[in-house]
Amino acid sequence: KVPIDGTSERITIQNIKLTIPDCSTKQTLKFDVWASQAANGKNVHCVVQNGSLVINEIRPSGLIYCTNPRQYEVNIFNNGPAIDNVSFKVRLDYSPIGILNSTDTLIYTSGLINLPANDTWTSGVLAYLPYSANYVSSGRPLLVEVTVPLRPNSSLALIQNSCGPLAVKFTSFTATQQKDKVVLNWQTAFEQNNKGFEVQRKLITGDYQTIAYVPSQAKDGNSNRALNYAYNDMDNLSSIKNIFYRLKQIDIDGKTSYSEIRVIKNEAGKTDVFIYPNPSREVANLIMPSGTGSVDILITDMSGSTIRRINNITADRYPIRSINPGTYLIKIYVTKTGETLVKKLVVL
Question: What pTM did the predictor assign?
């Protein structure tokens, strides 16, 4: 109730609940809204006449992925012609479940989207940190609210969380290069039904490989106090530019989840190459340090046009010959480290 002047007020009525026997198909409801004047209850007037409420034309749904941290996807089915300028909001759903209320935390607001006719629009996988990595909120369902222009009602859908809360709440996870080893440290604030952790490592060109297993320190896998863990990767990988680490958490019942990823960037492992002689007249030798491994070479002129491409060179010395006089750029891609090096070559 909001006073307008000394004799009138604006009254807003929200959250009117209408129970419909069957709304499995698209329906349009027609309605009138009547109101009476407080000063004279016998005088009534129509506020809305022949209003239209479309039921089940827009049907949102979604899915929560049991990753660590959690992720989700929103799908919106349009049971009608194409609709432009649609938007939606996603909230963490708190009690009462499935009902939009002030306790529901807003985690995402979309831009304007266009719904295709008689088809489903999909958001793709979305993240919602920090809530998706928090022990309590990672187990909550999500509520999607879709708004269509010029429609008096929005469409709601509950995304059930069948994953439950995360078994482990990480408070920190770090990876630090120390001379010829990498030190991994992590701390948990809460563990439930936790068996332990696989330490996984990935180099620039491969997949994640398990390099160690660290059992849970929690008694029977359950703890509500801070627990500290450490692992030293003693493999000397200082020649690798980027090394990726993650933790695979394993429940006692076999369920798994993953930590965030940490990256070690080894500047000491930066590869350098030499071109000799440079400038050259007939042959220029591309010289690579021993152990560089396979490289790909691209030679371009200064306008960017490709002159020559050579793949999978494994020799430490490669001769560049039969190139017309001019200035060129030599791009060397090092497979093992993922580096791309650029050198200038002058041919006389």
Answer: 0.47
